[in-house]
Amino acid sequence: MKKPNLKLIKTFNINFGPQHPAAHGVLRLVLELRGELVLKADPHIGLLHRGTEKLMETKSYLQGLPYLDRLDYVSMMAQEHAYALTIETLLKIKIPKKVQYIRVLFCELTRLLNHIMSLTTHALDVGAFTPFLWAFEEREKLMEFYERVSGARMHACFIRPGGISKDIPLGLLKDIHNFNVQFSSRLDEIEELLTSNRIWRNRLQNVGLVTKQDANAFGFSGPLLRASGVPWDLRKSMPYEIYNELNFKIALGVNGDCLSRYYVRIREMRESLSIINQCLNAIPLQNLNLNWKSIENLKINSSLSTNYKNNVSMEYIIQHFKLYSLGFKVDTGISYVGVEAPKGEFGVHITSLNNTKPYRCRLRAPGFFHLQGIDFMSKNHYLADIVTIIGTQDIVFGEIDR
After folding, report:
1. Could you give the domains of the chain?
2. How far apart are the first and last CA of the chain?
3. Does the structure show a pLDDT above 70 at 303?
4. Are 218 and 80 in contact (CB under 8 A)?
5. Which member of 56, 175, 268, 282 lies 3.0 to 4.6 Å from 361 by CB, making a disulfide possible if both were Cys?
């Protein structure tokens, strides 16, 4: 009997990124392909590495704050929040109620800021151009709110250990309310274009499936975990600030595919609008213009705005100079605090040895864990599906590479 001719079909490797416009940063994926079918996806990271954690160990606690803004540069205040809470846990200090409301208000505005970027750039990658143009107009308004409280559009340094850098300006709450009212209808318009769109659904449905077991095993958090049906949200599961006083639902998906992750982010934005509305209605109205003498043991003065007109004494100037040059001491201890950042659980671990600088600083970036799942999420999908999967992972390399 004649033996059949066996042909060896060779696979080939290609580089996806780091210059690819759909790589969402400096991601380099080495893809093993058979035709257009993906057999393996090997992520190569570190192209943006700056040694952020070691740099923070050489700075005072207040000087280390700007590094947090430069990690996930789409969710700036969420990371500042985790850092501030970690230091406050070590210092055992209490934050005024109004400051807690302001923090939560801006953390939810940050969630909108992140999800607008995530959804519209993902839609752009897949081929839908209009949502990007519509939503970035709204994003510009959110950036203006950042600018009005901090003077900076991105690197705000607004949420600080002890509270916030200064009280919010007059008229801001009214403008946030106006934005809140009209943004819901803009979300409706974006959903009109995408949610029932046959092309959009075909590109996302049953792509990048993640089961509950895989999501937990890989340390997923945030929308990626909830899209697989796991009801875990730190704002509900381990409440901080005033979240236990607010009424909102956890957005859950069912299938754990790209379409479920899209649904979860849309629903999260609607819940954020509800939280913002509750904060606007319940925020205390007292001023925060307290002078440095009111801060316990002069440990920390970044919590409240300073009324410079009433504080022109030499003692005040000396204390202010010492605070920003030498910093404040933090008692010996170890603390880790995680917050529900827009991309998932962002955590800060600090080891303090009764010094003005942290002895050890470590960061938990949610995107780092999500990127590790790119191999099993993309296996047996087509090359074009890689773009869709990366888009719904919502990765930013400032926090992954650090």
Report:
1. 43-394 (1.10.645.10)
2. 63
3. no
4. no
5. 56
